[in-house]
């Protein structure tokens, strides 16, 4: 079965959150609104302060947090909860309890769709990889068989080519077995994944 998780790993790396130009522009209201719109935690301002300190710039917390609250009012809507979950982004607990009563169920539905799409995508990728391995071994086998038909080869060279042909045939057999397994896996998850995507997405007018 497809596991439903409460969040997905989508955390930012350790790079600076603001450039020198952004720090010097001092648009803390605009930055706060954007962070609210993206559901950033209030500690995000500390990261901005650290990024701007090297340029001798300090934040304006009043402007930042007032604008962040405005952005959060849009972020915390239930329809955005679904979009956030489906994108694989992590909810950082920024909505009020009243807002969460609508936001969280929609977010968790989005996560279910995200997980279903990931499972289906991984299964499709496994099938494509198995097909690619088969084609690779087939091409190599054809090349070695052509090589064996060449004239002027010594007995030692022919034996070496025949040994490689035997190995490639074994590898091709294994690759075909892997394809059958990948196809079986895909069929096993496809029905459940697509059922989740259709049923959950239908609640939000996505499908």
Structure description:
73% of the residues lie in helices and 0% in strands. The protein starts with 19 loop residues before the first helix and ends in a 5-residue tail after the last helix. By secondary structure, it is mostly helical. It contains 7 helices and no strands. It folds into 2 domains: 20-109, no CATH class; 125-189.
Short description:
The chain has 207 residues and is mainly α.
Task: Outline the fold blueprint.
Elements: H1 20-25, H2 28-37, H3 44-53, H4 61-75, H5 78-87, H6 97-148, H7 155-202
Helix pairs in contact: 2-4, 5-6, 6-7
Properties at a glance:
73% helix; elongated; 0% strand; mainly alpha; 7 helices; 207 residues
- Span between N and C termini? 22 Å
Backbone shape? elongated
Elements, N to C (H/E): HHHHHHH
Structural class: mainly alpha
User: What are the low-pLDDT stretches, counting only 5+ consecutive residues below 50?
Assistant: 1-14
Which percent range describes the beta-strand content? under 5%
Percent of residues in helices:
over 70%
What is the strand tally?
Answer: 0
Tally of individual helices: 7
């Amino acid at each position: 079965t497809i596991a439903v998780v409460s969040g997905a790993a989508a955390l930012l790396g350790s790079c600076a959150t603001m450039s020198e130009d952004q720090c010097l522009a001092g648009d803390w209201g605009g930055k706060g609104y954007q962070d609210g719109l993206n559901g950033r935690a209030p500690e995000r301002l500390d990261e901005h302060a650290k990024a701007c300190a090297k340029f001798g710039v300090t934040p304006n917390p009043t402007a930042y947090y007032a604008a962040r609250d405005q952005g959060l009012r849009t972020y915390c809507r239930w329809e955005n909860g679904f979009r956030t979950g489906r994108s694989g982004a992590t909810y950082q607990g920024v909505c009020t309890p009243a807002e969460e009563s609508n936001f969280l169920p929609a977010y968790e539905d989005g996560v279910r769709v995200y997980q279903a799409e990931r499972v289906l995508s991984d299964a499709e990728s496994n099938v494509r990889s198995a097909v690619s391995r088969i084609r690779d071994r087939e091409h190599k086998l054809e090349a070695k068989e052509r090589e064996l038909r060449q004239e002027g080869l010594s007995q030692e060279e022919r034996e070496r080519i025949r040994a490689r042909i035997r190995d490639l045939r074994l590898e091709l057999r294994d690759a075909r077995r892997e394809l059958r397994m990948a196809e079986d896996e895909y069929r096993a998850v496809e029905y459940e994944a697509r059922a989740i995507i259709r049923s959950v997405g239908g609640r939000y007018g996505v499908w």
